[in-house]
């Protein structure tokens, strides 16, 4: 897997020039890889969408409308929508994990449907807990339909995911695997909520190792389940299942930490979020927690608590090593992904698609 990119900056006052041929070639390679990954995502969505629609169609019509709205398929009231339903990363991981492990296509599709249902269930409930009024540039389900209905829709999606897996050959093992992932997801969400009330400094502050555990549980557990679930349904051996689960868990931590870097220093034109947005929202992200362990902690904490001058806080966090430590940590988990993939024999062609997808997820403008 390709290493995370580093940003190339011109010297102040330097004349603008054409990039060297090597950088042009690298940029072309990255663009080609991204195009290839997008084709993989499109293929997996096309494979899964009919089965996902069929599953949602079994729900109560009102609940089914809320589910369809959450997937971006319709507007409030049921009119067809043109809203984006997301890239479908988890369903692609499920399909590719099954294919790479030699499982039949049916196993990958059933796993993808279950994972997508559970992921959407978690988003519905997360938006309520976090008070997030928007999801993918339109009102979140709880804002569009009400809090109670959104909770009900989330519960229905979770029940439908279990039903989907239980109906498959080998479904008992798949339900157990999903249950473990959900238990970890709840643990991670609980820790994330509790982090909010803990102080920036002092013995009760949140430590980077606590954050790593939270990210693995909240983000990595479901990605690990996605990568492994099709292999479970396809009857793959425990070594293959465990390796694919580790792939997703390490990817989840890397993905979350890269998100943290983008949440402070990312280009709004790329991220769709305001610059320094996470600092304005006083989020305890990995770069911040690392910087708060430095001799500059009191100055950084004072700025974070006041909410003033987020650009100054960002500069101090970078000076304290928060940004570089975050990218080092992300790269460490990417290396662990490669190690896990190397531990089991995987179908060559699909393994390449899987590696391309994993690399794409962390190769963002950091």
Could you walk me through the main structural features you see in this protein, from its secondary elements to its overall organization?
This protein has helices at 21-56, 61-70, 89-100, 105-130, 141-145, 147-166, 171-195, 208-233, 238-265, 268-271, 277-280, 286-291, 297-306, 310-319, 322-342, 348-362; strands at residues 134-135, 138-139. It is built from 16 helices and two strands. The chain has 366 residues and is an all-alpha fold. Helix 4 runs parallel beside helix 7 (171-195), helix 9 (238-265) runs antiparallel to helix 15 (322-342) and helix 13 (297-306) packs antiparallel against helix 14 (310-319). Strand 1 (134-135) and strand 2 form a beta hairpin. Strands 1-2 form a two-stranded antiparallel sheet.
Compact description:
With 366 residues, this protein is mostly helical. It is built from 16 helices and 2 strands.
| Estimated helix fraction | over 70%
The succession of helices and strands, N to C, reads HHHHEEHHHHHHHHHHHH
Tell me about the biggest sheet?
Answer: 2 strands, antiparallel
Instruction: Tell me what portion of residues adopts beta-strand conformation.
Output: under 5%
Overall pLDDT: 88
Across the major sheet, the strand order is 1-2
Radius of gyration: 21 Å
Count of DSSP H/I helices: 16
Ranges with pLDDT <50 over ≥5 residues?
1-19
Determine the N-to-C terminus distance.
17 Å
Q: What is the total tally of β strands?
A: 2
The secondary structure category is mainly alpha
Using the alpha-carbon principal axes, give the shape. globular
